[in-house]
Amino acid sequence: MSTTVTPLTTTDAETLIAAARRAADEAGVPVSITVLDAGGHLLAFRRDERAVLISGETSTAKAYTALQLNAPTVEVADLVKPEGPFHSLPTALNKPLLFIAGGVPVRRDGQLVGALGLGGGAPEQDHAFAQTALQAL
Description:
By secondary structure, the chain is an alpha+beta fold. Helices cover 41% and strands 20% of the residues. It is built from five helices and four strands; from the N terminus they run αββαααββα. The protein has helices at residues 10-27, 54-69, 73-76, 89-92, 123-136, and strands at 32-37, 42-47, 103-108, 111-119. It has a four-stranded antiparallel beta sheet with strand order 2-1-4-3.
């Protein structure tokens, strides 16, 4: 018997953005935050006006990467290094994959329903902010 999992909603996305924003603000780090639904479509986005401009692109690419691989980007970063088993993956696909910490899948009842990406801080900061946001959901 399969159960239907509720998709990620705009309310969920706003909860994730608010929690990530609080964590980043408390650390004094201006960030961009992207929430994608299970299909990889933009559900919500916020860029602190003080965040570096590229952070908008990196937050989205991190979210997309976490969604496609159903894994936090921090866990797959080593796989694409020159000695890693997937070293050619970033150039093999014409997709915006980014193997830097800060992207996390969003799961509900164990099923993938979307992804969250943060950019603008150091990679470990972006990952921590994303993890904090997941706790709020």
